[in-house]
Amino acid sequence: MRYPVSTGIAGPAWFGFFCAWVGLWAFSVPVQAERIKDLASIQGIRTNQLVGYGLVVGLDGTGDQTVQTPFTIQSLNNMLMQLGVNVPPGTNMRLRNVAAVMVTAALPPLAQPGQTIDVTVSSMGNARSLRGGTLLMTPLKGIDGQLYGVAQGNLLVVGIGAAASGSKVQVNHLNAGRIPGGATVERAVPVALGQDGMIRLELNTIDFSTAKRIVDAVNTRFGMGTAAALDGRAIQVRTPAESDHRVAFLAEMESLAINPAQMPARVIVNSRTGSVVMNQAATVDQCAIAHGNLTVVISTEPVISQPGPFSSGRTVQAQRSTIEIKQESGMLTMVEGASLAEVVKALNAIGATPQDLLAILQAMKSAGALRAELEII
């Protein structure tokens, strides 16, 4: 059996030395670095939105009610006319297996003709369900009115529902679905990527410190003068003239790792749901808080006044209201926190609900005790 070799350090002294070593090691650990491609994007390399109007057919009697949605019949007549079918004027078409829909898609950057993209199909009439339907050929246009894709295919609707005798059961949404790879790109969006020997990086979040660190990292790797910061969001970068060299340069530049500046302290409050989210930089200065709920109860009871026997009076109905006010006692609680864990512990010590925290955080911000930006959404 082997025994540990004695180092000559007593137990308490050894423990203190170990704690000091761990503390120095923790301070020496660098901040987690991130790639430039995770912090910024190249100007012009962006997604474009497409939209189109079409028809979904093959529904099981759950399509549009043509009386309330005349545009469905009008669209169907126009489509049949283009296919060589002439519908006599005045024909009363009551089709329940057709629905007018809006088709949306996102054209990815640098997409080329022939590639396929996913589309989302949403009912715009009073159709009860698009389940089992087929989208007919639908042109997809951009903001400039030009055709960039064509969509067609069978819808994938994850919802399901049934109705009978006035009862209805439905799971998820039935009036929207997707067609994976349901659109074909017909036109590419022209992108001038470094044609003049320059590209522009755009930070996802404006930060002058992060912009400076990116410029320093690029200039250190590729030489001084390669990158220059225009402001807290845009960085201008010189690139090689040849396309293959430019692609290799951008691939290496995007992989450079830097330590981004710490995000500003921020507390996000959702007033509709009562959610409170704060980042690690949020701190609380020393302050005292007393919190108590105020409850007001108003109850109303009807009071009937009956006239005496053989009198000429009549019965009168009145209301009597009772107002009761209750206030819970709240003692002063000292709150202070220099880290996120201490802030959470201090706020939990108050014993307030998430709804109460909305008012407490706003009051702390007004008093100057909350060292963070308070954003209410």
UniProtKB/TrEMBL annotation:
<keyword id="KW-0966">Cell projection</keyword>
<dbReference type="InterPro" id="IPR001782">
    <property type="entry name" value="Flag_FlgI"/>
</dbReference>
<keyword id="KW-0282">Flagellum</keyword>
<dbReference type="Pfam" id="PF02119">
    <property type="entry name" value="FlgI"/>
</dbReference>
<dbReference type="GO" id="GO:0030288">
    <property type="term" value="C:outer membrane-bounded periplasmic space"/>
</dbReference>
<comment type="subunit">
    <text>The basal body constitutes a major portion of the flagellar organelle and consists of four rings (L,P,S, and M) mounted on a central rod.</text>
</comment>
<comment type="function">
    <text>Assembles around the rod to form the L-ring and probably protects the motor/basal body from shearing forces during rotation.</text>
</comment>
<keyword id="KW-0975">Bacterial flagellum</keyword>
<comment type="similarity">
    <text>Belongs to the FlgI family.</text>
</comment>
<keyword id="KW-0969">Cilium</keyword>
<dbReference type="GO" id="GO:0071973">
    <property type="term" value="P:bacterial-type flagellum-dependent cell motility"/>
</dbReference>
<keyword id="KW-0732">Signal</keyword>
<protein>
    <recommendedName>
        <fullName>Flagellar P-ring protein</fullName>
    </recommendedName>
</protein>
<dbReference type="GO" id="GO:0009428">
    <property type="term" value="C:bacterial-type flagellum basal body, distal rod, P ring"/>
</dbReference>
<dbReference type="GO" id="GO:0005198">
    <property type="term" value="F:structural molecule activity"/>
</dbReference>
